[in-house]
# Entry
Amino acid sequence: FFLPTCPCLHSAMARSLRKRRNAKVVSVKPKEKKIQKKHFNVRQIQDPELRKRFDIKKTLQENLEATDLKEMYYDRLPKKIPKKGAHPVKVNEDEAPICKKLIAKHGDDYQKMHWDIKLNVQQWTAKQCEKKVKAFNAGKLRSAKAEILSGHGIDFRRPMYGASKDRNIFGH
# Structure
């Protein structure tokens, strides 16, 4: 048996053996799956129509796949689908002067309004410009009080009531 006398070869061999000895064995264990409850307590279902149709011999998923919502709630569905959106666009007190300036400069050209970065400070798209300008022309304005009541947050930009009205938004 021949051992090399060169120290550099000897240290390299020892190092590799040490690495092999300290190497950790990687084992992939299967994750435990969450077991679905076979039966569901029917009394937890709030809706009486769904509670009537619920079969306790099936799982929750099987029951939900078997239910036909259109048949269950046919009397509650609307007869006709509305054409207009539920929330019409309105212009608040901050947006009204911007709309006024955009109309004065560009008229009905919404693409030019979109690209005018000096007047269009809120970076509206062409479609947003069109909606805001049409709402402004139709007189659909929203006061600051209505904005606060609706919860859209104009009250964070400018306080309206009490001593905070005179202070800035940082409270000093």
User: Anything to note?
Assistant: The mean pLDDT is 79.
